[in-house]
Amino acid sequence: NRQIQLVSRPVKGPAVDNFALRTVELRAPVAGEILLRTLYLSLDPYMRARMYDGGNYAASAALGEPMVGSTVSIVAMSNHPDFRVGDYVESGHGWQEFALSDGAGLRRIDPDLAPVSTALGILGMPGQTGYTALMRHGQPRAGETLVVSAASGAVGSVVGQVAEILGCRVVGIAGGPEKCRFLTDELGFDAAVDHRSPQFSDELAKACPSGIDIYYDNVGGRVFETVLPLVNAQARILVCGTIAVDRNQPGADGTGSMQALLSTVLVKRLSIRGFIYSDDDLMALAPEFRTRVGQWLREGRLRYREQIVHGLENAPEAFLGLFRGDNFGKLVVKVSEP
Ligand code: NDP
What we know:
Layout: E1 2-6, E2 19-23, E3 34-42, H1 47-51, E4 65-66, E5 71-78, E6 88-91, E7 98-101, E8 107-108, H2 125-138, E9 145-148, H3 154-165, E10 169-174, H4 177-186, E11 191-194, H5 200-207, E12 212-217, H6 221-227, E13 231-239, H7 258-267, E14 271-274, H8 280-283, H9 286-298, E15 306-310, H10 315-321, E16 330-334
Parallel strand pairs: 9-10, 9-12, 10-11, 12-13, 13-14, 15-16
Antiparallel strand pairs: 1-2, 1-4, 3-5, 3-7, 3-16, 5-6, 6-8
Helix pairs in contact: 2-3, 2-9
Bound molecules: NADPH dihydro-nicotinamide-adenine-dinucleotide phosphate.
Protein name: NADP-dependent oxidoreductase
InterPro entries: ADH-like_C, ADH_N_2, ER, GroES-like_sf, MDR_fam, NAD(P)-bd_dom_sf
Keywords: Oxidoreductase
């Protein structure tokens, strides 16, 4: 069984040599167990925080173990009454080709609904986070202006498209002209702004003539600081992720004006809301997410983009690309053929 193990903790930022490809023995499944073969491995920004000591809202990944992560897997052998060979499941068994399971914590995937890899993207954790947090904490109303960062990605693309369906004016922030064109031409956003452009601040202001009512922030840092002066009174700021800020290098992108944030919160009576996908109040919306987003996907009203990397051995390098914006769409590794 080939695994990518976490073998050391990052010193400054994460690096390829924090990971090692190792082959370990795997016994056969005993009574009550199944053998899972990994088809797709999800690579997600949250994994960076897991590499450090101390954890954040979740524990650190252990050294000498497969790196943590969600997979789409197929049941290859079954000694379990509830699972048959060929069943598809989402599992949390990490960066490895095979895993044994007693069935606990597995989520069944219906392969007729959509390609099974979408269980890691638009129909999985990122899509669900985008939908549920937007509805619960963003309270979008038709006619309002919503800005979303990392807008072409797994979470951002769902947030922006759902807000469009609900009648908001949607402005996406993404890195580079190709991603920006994708937002307006393929996803139907009203405008897109390139955060790498030297005129980013002016272009964002131009794209938001009535200010910003909802900012769904996936990145933090310099992008957050550029958005802040444009928010309207009583805007809702949703702090979903801070991919621009590595906890061991705070302020590495030249930002850090906490005071500007706090005085804007006060003067404009802002609500700033942080949340985690698994919060009870967001999980309560999961059935609604599955029904509505599943329906919109089937009707072609929602689109998604995936970047598929081939081969488990290429996972570390692809993962690091998330923090450079190399991925274009939900990043998944194809580990084996269905
Ligand atoms: P994406 O598919 O959006 O990939 C990450 C993207 O982030 C990159 O492609 C890049 O896009 C952008 N990015 C990376 N570094 C920077 C930077 N320094 N400045 C600006 N943009 C940057 O990832 P996800 O959709 O999976 O995740 C998006 C965010 O949501 C992450 O912060 C993640 O941690 C968070 N998240 C939070 C959850 C929660 O429960 N709170 C659940 C799921 C995700 P570009 O080229 O456009 O800059």
